[in-house]
Amino acid sequence: MSSMTLMAFELLRLLLGFVIAAFHRPIADYIMERERVLVIAFRERGIPAPTLTTEAARNVYFCLGMFIVLLEMARIWGFMHPQSIFFSFITR
Description:
Layout: H1 3-22, H2 24-44, H3 54-80, H4 85-90
Helix pairs in contact: 1-3, 2-3
C-alpha cells in the first residue's frame, strides 16, 4: 500500500474516534437499552448479571472515543517523524 492510502486509514480512524466521542450519549443509550434486555433475560434464567449505570456507560464511550483519538494522533505524529524512537514502537 502507498503511504497516502495508509494515511487515509489513519485519518479515518481519527475521525472514528471523534465521532464516538461526539456521539457518546446516543451510543451509550442505545447500548444500554440492548443491555437491559440481556440482563433481564439472564436474571430470568437465574444468572446474576452486573448492571452499569447510564452515566457510567456514557463515560466509558467518551473515554473510548478519546483514547482512539489520542492513539491515532500519536500514530500520525510518529509516521510523520520516522527518526523518533516512538516510530519503532508503533510500526511493530
